[in-house]
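hey can u run this one w/ guanosine-5'-monophosphate bound, need the structure tokens asap thx
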Amino acid sequence: MPGSPRRILIGEEAIHRRVAELAARISSDYAAVEELFMVGVLRGSYIFLADLSRALKIPRRIDFIALSSYGKGAVSGAVRLIMDVRTDITQRHVLIVEDIVDTGHTLDYLLRLFRARKPASLKTCTLLRKAGTMQVQVPVDYVGFDIPDVWTVGYGLDFADKFRALPYIAQLSSDECETL
Ligand code: 5GP
Ligand code: MG
Ligand code: MG
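ok here u go:
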């Protein structure tokens, strides 16, 4: 298809296998808990959250939060809350679901925000984690794949709002960024 990224990093089958593994681990870790409260970070995590939540064997509730992502000219590490969750997370078992951890600033901001609300427990899950780019050390409890420092698209992740619906994860090269 013209305009599709050329280099596939993680294929559809591998993603589905890994999501099933993560779901099995999370289901067993939270087996004794009354209800898991999953918070998807919009927009990149929406497909991962949909698949992960459906593969769980435990009671769960879903909510979303939206944060500004860094763009051209933005101060590195500046995170802004765009839309908060609609539920009081106090005393809930919260699992933050992210698409990708890069510098760690987004997850760091979220953990501080949520800790102040006194949840019963607070853990983090990300589909992807970039190697060697973390600027703040954030604890990630569940990681789908560790990947190199490249721009990834597909399975919810975008470049300029394109490619989110690709069933696989692809690497976008800098010349593709310019021409697509
Ligand atoms: P942070 O640097 O705060 O850990 O990550 C900020 C956000 O930037 C991520 O949640 C994600 O939305 C976006 N991001 C970082 N790296 C990539 C990437 O390779 N591809 C895409 N599509 N988004 C990314
Ligand atoms: Mg994100
Ligand atoms: Mg984005």
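The CA atoms of residues 45 and 99 lie 5 Å apart. anyway lmk if its weird
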